[in-house]
TrEMBL record:
<keyword id="KW-0786">Thiamine pyrophosphate</keyword>
<dbReference type="InterPro" id="IPR047213">
    <property type="entry name" value="TPP_PYR_PDC_IPDC-like"/>
</dbReference>
<keyword id="KW-0479">Metal-binding</keyword>
<dbReference type="Pfam" id="PF02776">
    <property type="entry name" value="TPP_enzyme_N"/>
</dbReference>
<dbReference type="InterPro" id="IPR012000">
    <property type="entry name" value="Thiamin_PyroP_enz_cen_dom"/>
</dbReference>
<keyword id="KW-0812">Transmembrane</keyword>
<keyword id="KW-1133">Transmembrane helix</keyword>
<feature type="transmembrane region" description="Helical">
    <location>
        <begin position="71"/>
        <end position="93"/>
    </location>
</feature>
<dbReference type="InterPro" id="IPR029061">
    <property type="entry name" value="THDP-binding"/>
</dbReference>
<keyword id="KW-0460">Magnesium</keyword>
<dbReference type="InterPro" id="IPR011766">
    <property type="entry name" value="TPP_enzyme_TPP-bd"/>
</dbReference>
<dbReference type="InterPro" id="IPR012110">
    <property type="entry name" value="PDC/IPDC-like"/>
</dbReference>
<keyword id="KW-0210">Decarboxylase</keyword>
<dbReference type="GO" id="GO:0004737">
    <property type="term" value="F:pyruvate decarboxylase activity"/>
</dbReference>
<dbReference type="GO" id="GO:0030976">
    <property type="term" value="F:thiamine pyrophosphate binding"/>
</dbReference>
<comment type="similarity">
    <text>Belongs to the TPP enzyme family.</text>
</comment>
<dbReference type="Pfam" id="PF02775">
    <property type="entry name" value="TPP_enzyme_C"/>
</dbReference>
């Protein structure tokens, strides 16, 4: 077979295309410019320039969550770039996301020598970044001449197998080396190993035995099975088992909310009335991908104690209430087999109880609507209602940390709509650049950002990149004049932030972007919302302008923080 020479960037671009990647995020620096030139030679990969490395990392996080390939690529420069993006990659690690970090570094001969190079600490040791990334990736390497192509394939395999970030340093001199390749490089082998069918069948038997002994089970849906189970499969399993199902905050959208057995959000002591009581009254919790942490339990659920009634189904294992665990199973086969089996359904009273709860809230909402004046101030409940009436099946809600969680989690999603949250790492400001990555990955829908004013101040400059790439996301800012959830945890002047005119900020960014563009300016509107009337008008306009980027600044009186937020804050107070 004839061969020709290619550079390292050509090899990487070929592999990324093969993996289904269509976009990569970058902040240019002099150590990665030649690499970027090589990546640009592939017309099927789009380069997305971000305002800073942290935002580029968040964008890659959003892309890895929502793209078909579930893999994202980000290109940065040595130290000043790699350390800037580190926080975002740590967050991606906490979520089990496949993010490939390419870092241009000084030439090979400078490593281990005392000569000072810019962006370094001025030491002979120039491996600080490489060592740091070993803590937030499944593999971190620096490429060299001898084994570059094979090293690339090996580390990409590790990324896919572990579903975790990887970090690749590429010296500037290596970028110019030629590597022999064929016109059609052998494809990367499939990363997955076949689980044991015998163990999967045994898991079904163990599940059945535990299920048959239960009298009043419930199902709890988390986020940990996104990569192996579709929402449709979870819906069918819930139907087959017959009992009520609830979702954790990060499990929202993993079960269709219009499913007749679907309850609401189960969030420990800040659950809606009746939900916590229903779950706690159950004698068996069938947990589907529940990745528990302290923000799920709020110190009110003792996980060690509750495991005695927990049948946990995870990505490749099940754990029984008696502590036995069966690993190396195929969860997809396991669930599909359960669905078609003759396992008896449990139509427990909790299903009826939950339907009564839903009916209560429906009537309560209708009663509130009758008493609302269009001139009334906007509150969090109003934003929830507006979003519920707006979100479509192709949309994705990206909810930032803090009060935004409490608004976004109560939005009733239509079938097929998606919901994303970074609960474990909880880095504020994540949602806006992550939504940009999501919007690029899912261009047929709209990314809807729900973000607080404090979080927006962390990453709001990426609004300019959204405009530059003509994205039609909707950014809902809950402007309550500071870090209100943190204030509920511990009151103090440090929770106050400087006031911004967010609509003026958005308009200034739009004007700046439009002045440098030769094409027709991208449609965008920004509006400040203080009343019911303005809220309805803003969402009507966003609906009427589906191609426009919209920023809706919802001014919410901080003195009217809901009781549930105060209760949430109280659970996190350090004794």
């Amino acid at each position: 077979m004839p061969s020709h020479k290619g550079k390292v960037g050509d090899l990487l671009a070929h592999r990324f295309e093969e993996l289904g990647v269509k976009d990569y995020f970058t902040v240019p620096g002099d150590y990665n410019l030649d690499l970027l030139d090589q990546l640009l030679r592939n017309p099927r990969l789009r380069m997305v320039n971000c305002c800073n490395e942290l935002n580029a990392g968040y964008a890659a996080d959003g892309y890895a969550r929502t793209s078909d390939t579930k893999i994202a690529v980000v290109v940065i420069t040595y130290m000043v770039g790699s350390l800037s993006i580190l926080n975002a990659i740590a967050g991606a690690y906490s979520e089990g996301l496949k993010v490939i970090v390419l870092c241009g570094v000084p030439e090979s001969r400078s490593h281990g020598h005392a000569g000072r190079v810019h962006h370094s600490l001025g030491l002979a040791d120039k491996e600080q970044s490489l060592r740091i990334y070993r803590n937030v990736t499944c593999a971190s390497i620096r490429l060299d001449n001898d084994s570059c192509p094979q090293d690339i394939d090996n580390i990409l395999q590790k990324c896919r197998a572990a579903s975790l970030p990887i970090y690749i340093e590429i010296p500037v001199d290596l970028v110019h080396k030629d590597f022999v390749k064929t016109p059609c490089i052998a494809p990367l082998p499939c990363a997955e190993t076949a689980p044991s069918l015998d163990r999967t069948m045994k898991a079904i038997d163990l599940f059945r035995d535990t299920w048959m002994a239960a009298q009043s089970p419930v199902i709890l849906v988390g986020s940990g099975l996104r990569s192996v189970l579709s929402v449709e499969a979870i819906d069918r399993l819930v139907s087959a088992l017959g009992c009520a199902a609830f979702y954790l905050l990060d499990g929202k959208s993993r079960i269709t909310e219009t499913h007749p057995q679907c309850g609401k959000l189960f969030w420990s002591i800040v659950s809606d009335p009746g939900v916590e009581e229903t779950v706690r009254a159950a004698d068996l919790w069938v947990t589907l991908g529940c990745r528990w942490n302290d923000l799920h339990t709020l110190e009110a659920i003792d996980l060690e104690k509750e495991r005695s009634r927990m049948l946990a189904v995870d990505e490749s294992s099940i754990q029984l209430p008696d502590g036995r665990e069966l690993t190396d199973i195929c969860t997809k086969t396991f669930v599909e087999s359960l669905i078609v089996s003759d396992i008896p359904a449990r139509y427990a009273s909790d299903t009826t109880l939950h339907r009564n709860i839903c009916e209560h809230h429906r009537r309560e909402g209708m009663a509130k609507q009758h008493n609302v004046s269009l001139d009334d101030e906007v509150c969090l409940d109003d934003i929830v209602k507006a979003l519920t009436g707006f979100v479509s099946p192709t949309d994705t809600i990206m909810a930032d940390a803090g009060e935004s969680w409490f608004a976004a989690s109560r939005v009733r999603l239509p079938p097929q709509a998606d919901f994303q949250v970074q609960l474990l790492y909880s880095s504020i400001g994540w949602s806006l650049p992550a939504a940009m990555g999501c919007q690029l990955a899912r261009p047929d829908g709209r990314a809807i950002v729900v973000i607080g004013d404090g979080s927006f101040q962390m990453t709001g400059q990426e609004l300019s990149t959204m405009i530059r790439y003509r994205l039609n996301a909707i950014v809902v800012i809950i402007n309550n004049w500071g870090y209100q959830v943190e204030d509920a945890i511990h009151h103090g002047p440090y929770n106050q932030i400087g006031g911004w005119d967010y609509t003026a900020f958005a308009e200034a960014v739009w004007k700046g972007s439009s002045s440098k563009s030769d094409s027709e300016p991208h449609a965008m509107f920004a509006t400040k919302i203080t009343s019911q009337r303005e809220l309805h008008e803003a969402f009507s306009r966003a609906c009427a302008q589906p191609q426009a980027l919209a920023l809706l600044e919802c001014c919410v009186d901080p003195a009217k923080a809901s009781a549930v937020i105060q209760r949430f804050g109280a659970t996190l107070v350090r004794k």
